[in-house]
Design brief:
Blueprint: E1 2-7, H1 16-26, E2 32-37, E3 40-43, H2 47-52, E4 60-66, H3 70-89
Antiparallel strand pairs: 1-4, 2-3, 2-4
């Protein structure tokens, strides 16, 4: 298992549009991909799960990946996560 921390900097939090982009990247990897907020853990390949996590501005999340491409999955998702936030803050 590989983990990477990210912080939500989008003032609107992770709503439908950024959630869809996050899921769109997560599904491209063979590894299992999860987002964790406190004790809550959701499948990052599920848009409903990502939205239900309720990640608002300044929330710290942990990306957890497990599988053959786990490091690449976590690193790519973190990059996409940041680009989604920057786009929405522009």
């Amino acid at each position: 298992m590989f983990t990477k921390e990210v912080v939500v900097k989008n003032k609107s939090g992770i709503h439908a549009r950024p959630a869809a982009e996050i899921v769109g990247i997560a599904v491209k990897f063979r590894s299992s991909v999860f987002l964790k907020k406190g004790e809550d853990r959701v499948n990052a390949k599920s848009i409903l799960g990502v939205i239900a996590l309720g990640a608002s501005y300044d929330t710290r999340l942990t990306i957890e990946t497990e599988g053959e491409d786990e490091v690449r999955a976590a690193e790519t998702l973190a990059q996409v996560f940041n680009s989604v936030q920057e786009e929405n803050n522009a």
